[in-house]
Amino acid sequence: MNALRPAWLPAGIVGLVALAAWLGPGLSPELVGLRSLGPFAVLIIASGLAWWFNRGRTFVIAASLLGAFALQHAYPGKPVYTVLAVIVPLNALLAMILPERGARHGFGWRWLGLLALEAVLVTWIGRSQISDGVLDNWLLRSPPTPLPGRLLFAAAFAAAVCWRAWPEFTPLQVGNAGALAAFFIASEWWHLPNVHAAFIFAAGAILIVASLQESHRLAFRDELTGLPGRRALDERLRALPGRYTVAMVDVDHFKKFNDTHGHDIGDQVLKLVGARLAEVGGGGIAYRYGGEEFSVLFPHTELGEAFPHLEELRKSVELYRMAVRSERRPKQAEVGAKQRRPEGLDTTQKFLSVTVSIGVSQPNGQALRTPAQVLKAADEALYRAKQGGRNRVSR
Q1: pTM for this model (two decimals)
Q2: Active-site residue list
Q3: pLDDT at res. 133
Q4: DSSP three-state, residue 243
Q5: Interatomic CA distance for residues 267 and 249, integer angstroms
Q6: Which element (helix H / strand E) includes 31?
Q7: pLDDT one-digit tens code per residue, 340-391
Q8: Distance between CA atoms of residues 337 and 332, nearest Å
């Protein structure tokens, strides 16, 4: 359920729009302009955010939706609708298949060129006044979304969810899938302009919210360990009252470990240590402070109450044998099984163990009043733990 949490907001936006379209009255004549102004506004903002944050896939989806809505507004006929119902999911599918290379670099300009060519093609179709009878073959007659559009949408949505979003389910990847779903619903209700515009609006709103969520995630959460980052710790400390405990945690001899085993395995060790820290008891919250340093915050907790939990945490890291996959380990399970010894030991794995040193402090009158002073005191306690032989908790 935690992994699927980013999907709640897109689902909520689509649900609210569906409820409003079902229960809400049609726009009065003086407000009918909002039917086009709202979708235009959110899609322009979504495209701008994707371009600014250099998110190629999101930009392709947002720009495709913006262009499609503009062209449908300019040429409100079935021929243009039919072509756009195929082009938009096709663009999305291509964006999901191709690697993410950003929106503002060389590959992004190629996308702009493709979108421009598609706009020229659709404009020609809109101006050529093609008869609806041309589109009456079985491939394009599937009402209201043509069959090729439905197949392309299904492929693009599956690629967005099962390939690009799985298993991390980051907000932006989930938002891309949510925007595609909203566009499909809008296409299904093309014959009702108010409902169609409402779901196009929903698609743009989903992309805006997902872009902001992704920006927040990157700013406040460490990408390697998945723990909240230093900025999140600073903000939480500023919001706390005077009663809390902070611990600074450092992986012992990490530089030497990195030099011996390599940075890739060093990253794996940091991830595994971060996972152990995330399980700290006593209401503690683990943060990645930077490098091999972590922090553990105990809100509304005295140092004496937090100390046993930190000691238990230190022991759990010391006793934990980490199975680290070798670079030579084959990806095929059958090949890997042949490399195992008869007694069942996998020779393609390394079993390593590390220890951590911990320094802990809490606010103490005027001497340790601000969060910066408490963090500095915890860092000094960490230094004493290292000087005292490492693999210990010092206050």
Answers
A1: 0.75
A2: 292
A3: 62
A4: coil
A5: 16
A6: none
A7: 444 444 555 667 788 999 999 998 876 677 888 899 999 999 999 999 999 9
A8: 9
